[in-house]
Specification:
- The protein is an all-alpha fold.
- The chain has a single domain, classed as ABC transporter involved in vitamin B12 uptake, BtuC, CATH 1.10.3470.
- The protein is built from eleven helices and two strands, in the order ααααββααααααα.
- The longest helix has 31 residues.
């Protein structure tokens, strides 16, 4: 039972990272219509900026949790302003290829300067230790990751779906001409939407730094699984990205107990089944 709950916890943690990355992907695709392959690179960038702030500037974990998403979001906004805005009226394939090139550039630059070896990041002292729950030992930091990611995802969902800013963002996507007629700066909204999406990846990188070694390849290893999660949930579905990520993370953890050899494939098997039964995804809209 301890092994079962331990693996379910690992699956829930992985699902938390899937949720933040896939939520960013859903926002960017839903608002901008771009399949952002570079999301994994922004996740890696978040981890590396966290590591550099500690080692080069002496800025600790909690300040990094505030600063890094802003830094990564501003970098993403600059990329949107200079590159992505030029392809909004083109086929989705152009966005996919451009963001793939951005990912390779960012990843290659960090490999050049830092090589591929992972760098450790110490768990903050306030989150060391854990709790003995009887049926399992719960490390404080693991519990914090799950809680923090859920709060960030739900706050983002509420902001997009339930506030006037979110409604304006959606209106700018569905009918930019009419939205512009009401005096709304549509290009600025597009920049903000992309910045929010990549800021979530940066925040995930901060949360991941004390768990996984900070490496230039950490995003490339995760992004394929995240895209499978997004397909299962439905491209552009914000709540679908959150719910599906946690469900598939738990399923992945359970598979490691029952059939460890299949844990790396179970999400892709589910993706294939969903595509056969419901191509739009579990929460996506049929067109």
């Amino acid at each position: 039972m301890q092994a079962l709950f331990g693996q379910l916890l690992v699956g829930l943690i992985n699902g938390s990272f899937y949720a933040m990355l896939s939520l960013g992907l859903a926002i960017i695709f839903g608002l901008l219509g771009i399949v952002n392959i570079a999301q994994g690179a922004f996740y890696m960038l978040g981890g590396f900026v966290t590591w550099m702030l500690l080692n080069y500037a002496g800025i600790g974990y909690f300040w990094s949790l505030l600063l890094v998403p802003i830094i990564v979001g501003l970098i993403g906004a600059a990329i949107e302003k200079t590159l992505l805005k030029r392809i909004y009226n083109l086929d989705h394939m152009y966005g996919l290829l451009l963001t793939f090139g951005i990912m390779m550039f960012i990843q290659g630059m960090f490999v050049h300067f830092f090589a591929t070896a992972g760098r450790p990041y110490t768990v903050p002292s306030a989150l060391t230790g854990g709790y003995n729950l009887g049926f399992m030992f719960l490390p404080k930091y693991r519990g914090w990751v799950v809680l923090a990611s859920l709060v960030l995802c739900l706050v983002t969902w509420y902001a997009i779906e339930k506030t006037s800013i979110g409604r304006t963002l959606r209106a700018a996507t569905e009918n930019p001409t009419l939205t512009r007629a009401f005096g709304v700066n549509v290009p600025a909204l597009m920049t903000i939407g992309f910045g929010i999406g990549v800021a979530l990846a940066g925040a995930a990188g901060v949360l991941a730094a004390p768990i996984y070694p900070v490496s230039p390849l950490m995003g490339a290893e995760l992004i394929i699984t995240v895209f499978a999660v997004v397909v299962v949930g439905g491209m552009g579905s914000i709540m679908g990205a959150i719910v599906t990520s946690l469900m598939l993370g738990l399923l992945e953890g359970l598979t490691k107990v029952v059939y460890p050899q299949g844990s790396n494939m179970v999400i892709f098997v589910i993706m294939l089944i969903v595509l056969l039964v419901r191509p739009a995804g579990l929460f996506g809209r049929e067109r």
